[in-house]
Specification:
heterodimer, A: 206 residues, alpha+beta, Defensin A-like, GMP Synthetase, Chain A, domain 3, Ribosomal Protein S8, Chain: A, domain 1, 3 domains, 3-stranded antiparallel sheet, 3-stranded mixed sheet, 6 helices, 9 strands, elongated, B: 77 residues, 3 strands, 29% strand
């Protein structure tokens, strides 16, 4: 956490000095009063300045944005970053030319970058926030593909009357398959194996 | 490429001032040696090497353009 200590004739003046130095606004910091100023006798004898400690409140979405900008810059990628935040987490979508390398095979690179951004931005935070990265709507498209796949393979399991085992997926992708099929009563789904090889099994109900 | 390793490592550790990288260029590959404070080793390796693996995946992607194989080695100072 970045913090500075400043003194001033009044608390406000000391805080103002700190804000100028940290280059942030009042609502981005926490102020701790270390010493109250005292006017002393007749306003000058024994007067004492006030002292404050001003700390910048760390903001995961700012940190994530900052890290991504640096990473994309050294990778020589021109990217427009858009950050949205709601009660479920922080969504960062990236748009630009030649971003295929940021996605990688089956989103491998995007997942790796997302994992690192989550770790770094939530470091030392009491309340961890989920950060989801997307490139050119990849996640949305992949979700639709997985839903289609889930329905197709559920039909297969039902018709053949035996288990259908899917290829290994990460927890995010497995959740999409489970939720797509959870309302059906002719088949059920479960996962088996250990990450990163954990995979879904679709099983017909007898 | 070493710059990318440095940015990622500094974002993960508690002591970014002790992060250093060194590159050895070979004909068809480069080896990036990442050094961090001993207390920070876990922060760049992770359980079962998960963090190190993620860093290597991102670096590999960035290296595609350069048509060179990049290896990231991790050590403590």
């Amino acid at each position: 956490m970045t913090d500075v200590e400043k003194t001033g004739k009044t608390i406000d003046e000391a805080v103002e000095k700190a804000l100028t130095e940290l280059r942030v606004s009042r609502d981005e910091v926490e102020v701790e009063i270390l010493e109250q100023p005292s006017k002393g006798l007749f306003g000058f004898l024994g007067s004492k300045p006030g002292k404050v400690k001003v700390s910048v409140i760390e903001n995961p979405s700012l940190k994530a944005n900052d890290l991504l900008e640096k990473v994309l810059d050294v990778m020589d990628l021109e990217v427009e970053i858009d950050v949205k935040q709601d009660e479920h987490g922080i969504f960062i979508s990236m748009q630009g030319p030649d971003l295929g390398i940021l996605i990688g095979r089956r989103g491998e690179t995007l997942d790796a970058l997302q994992y690192l951004v989550n770790l770094s931005s939530n470091k030392d935070q009491e309340h961890k926030q989920r950060i989801i990265l997307d490139v050119e709507g990849y996640r949305k498209r992949r979700e639709e593909t997985l839903r289609g796949l889930a329905i197709k393979l559920a039909e297969k399991a039902k018709q053949k009357g035996r288990n259908v085992v899917l290829e290994p997926m990460n927890s995010q992708e497995r959740r999409i398959i489970h939720t797509t099929l959870q309302s059906r009563n002719d088949i059920y789904t479960f996962s088996e194996g250990e990450d990163p090889y954990r995979k879904i099994v679709i099983s017909p109900r007898k | 490429m070493e710059e990318l390793v440095e940015i990622l490592a500094k974002a993960l550790v508690d002591q970014p001032e002790h992060v250093s990288v060194n590159v050895t260029e070979k004909e068809k590959s480069s080896v990036i040696q990442l050094r961090v404070a001993p207390e920070d080793m876990g922060k760049v390796i992770g359980k079962h090497g998960r963090i190190a693996k993620a860093m290597r995946t991102v670096v590999k992607a960035a290296a595609i353009k350069e048509r060179k194989k990049v290896f990231v080695e991790i050590d403590s100072i």
